[in-house]
């Protein structure tokens, strides 16, 4: 099956043996009757499994070219489950430019539990090896990174991970499997904030993991069941529905993204524009090799390069909504320094380029002329 067909049919065999409904029913139930203790039809309690969640997990595994999908109550709950594979003394090497909430989870929760993190600029993947030692257990990659749109070479990271026998996990939230399939490039774990493009309509908070390896899947399923950070059947249904249009939404996000990136670059009141589709983006060739398109996420600074100019600009937007999050059909604008990345100390975030004048756009699927007109009026 090819990708577009998979978004609609992937993993969806016999979803409703009772009546043949085309969409899986929403099994709004906590428990399942048993004929005798242990005599059930595969489900006993909805924390360990629910048929609507299974339908979604199978769909996620299918579109990521994996074998096993696991859905969680949020993207951070999915990352939390990955980190619970490790024990005090273990070390993790992470991209230094990453979602602020991931950084907060790493440094404020798991560092306190004895796991050591190294934050590394992985645009040159060979830098990773400088931090590997016998305690290293995981390389954590976000690409494109949030919010600087840096591109990390997944194949190069996977060669390093395999050489040193450590796991490689890729946060694929920004790219989605429409643009990039990390398991095919050698990653062991793909993670999603399904809240974003997979859900696609800004109405569900959810996380996902997909893996190929059975033993790893079993360990993660155990953590999912034992820690219990699952999502409900109604939300599973909504994300399953979202996935069915992922390919056409992503196509439009990419088309609009390109037009907006080019518009911003030509505007005198705009400073730097960060978008991997530009030929002079530092890792454009890697983006071209590992992604099918460049997506609808763009960051830029104001030419004035001040906090005030950025705040003034985002306040003036009318079609773009000033809000946290990304990946929905509607265009959003965010101010990382005070919003998504406020939990990262100023000196740390500025090292990676997250300056006070940086604005992040999640370009939606509206008419591009309306989006450009909105930016034009806000830039004044
Ligand atoms: C790249 C990335 N990873 C993880 C997360 C966390 O996901 P959630 O908000 O669903 O917990 C986000 C949220 O913005 C994100 O942008």
TrEMBL record:
GO terms for molecular function: cystathionine gamma-lyase activity; pyridoxal phosphate binding. GO terms for biological process: cysteine biosynthetic process via cystathionine; transsulfuration. GO terms for cellular component: cytoplasm. Its cofactor is pyridoxal 5'-phosphate. The modification N6-(pyridoxal phosphate)lysine is found at residue 196. InterPro entries: Cys/Met-Metab_PyrdxlP-dep_enz (IPR000277), Cys_met_metab_PP (IPR054542), PyrdxlP-dep_Trfase (IPR015424), PyrdxlP-dep_Trfase_major (IPR015421), PyrdxlP-dep_Trfase_small (IPR015422). It holds the Pfam family Cys_Met_Meta_PP. SUPFAM superfamilies: PLP-dependent transferases. Keywords: Lyase, Pyridoxal phosphate. CDD domains: CGS_like (cd00614). Belongs to the trans-sulfuration enzymes family. This is Cystathionine gamma-lyase. It comes from Gillisia mitskevichiae. The lineage of its organism: Bacteria, Pseudomonadati, Bacteroidota, Flavobacteriia, Flavobacteriales.
